[in-house]
Amino acid sequence: MTDPSKPATIYDVAEHAGVSISTVSNVLNKPDRVAAATRTRVLQVADELGYLPKATAIDLARKQTGRIGVVAPFSTYPSYLRRLVGVMRATRAQPVDISLIDQESAATASSPLLASMPIRGVVDGLVVMGAPIEASTEERLASRGLPVVLVDADSDRFSVVNIDDHGAGRRAARYLLDLGHRRIGYLSEAQASDYESQARRRLGGFRDELAAHPDVVLATTQAEGTMAAAREAALALLDGPDRPTAVMAHFDDLALGVVHAAAELGLDVPGDLSVLGFDDGPAAEAAGLSTVRQPFEESGSVAAGLLLEAIGGATQRRMTLLDCTLVERRTTAPPR
What we know:
It contains twelve helices and twelve strands. Among the domains are: 1-51, 434 Repressor (Amino-terminal Domain) (Orthogonal Bundle); 165-294, Rossmann fold. The chain is of the alpha/beta class. Helix 10 (252-264) links the parallel strand 8 (246-249) and strand 9 (274-276).
């Protein structure tokens, strides 16, 4: 029987959950190896017992201020570091620490977001960026009263800060149409899981804008989220006499991959091919890439403000939609 005066251990969690120690370890470190029902049971027991992995417990013992966690695919997409800047600016005057949790990209993730995180006492609130939270985990977070704000993802329970991906897709398509392009390509990022992602919303808006123009031919393709993969996909997309005269890419690195492919094929950009990206990061500015600018810092700042309000007791769920702007540079022009 667990002694309430002592910190819970992994052995206590295993005993109360009726599983082995290795199963508890897998839930915390490799959740994709554990059945959803077992994972939920183990995490519920961990929360009830107040179990914390050793390193987290030591860190909390030193804690003198509040703490918010920011979960995002930081190592996959540098743009999330710009959102983090917004979070930091919004919390600068507050007595809070910020803990970063690097999460695998939702496009390639095999395990559910936050599936392995024991939450009781670890953080006072979470900002989750770039991926939805599965329903069972949302229920778990809500039942523990943990304030959560999502950025670039949807939720039926928590406040959300999104950009208008559908509207941005329409704006990008309208821009290429106004330039006179009628054979258009679209390069998306391939995604492993089935959810209403930014990529799908953005492409949906792009398609909707083109739908009113029956003379337009749209060719779509996908690539993993690297410049090299985008180059390979673009080489195939641009190989043929009826190739697109313009290509829109889901984000800037993919667009730069298209630019590299065009150079290999001897196509002049923008004379033979217009290329339009999305995000407007430093690489886009350096390369003179026309793109759609996301309000990265603003989205982080708004999310942090909503989270601080929730930590302070606010209960109203808020939905915030931010606009994007088109930035015209050297890679787009009317077709020849």
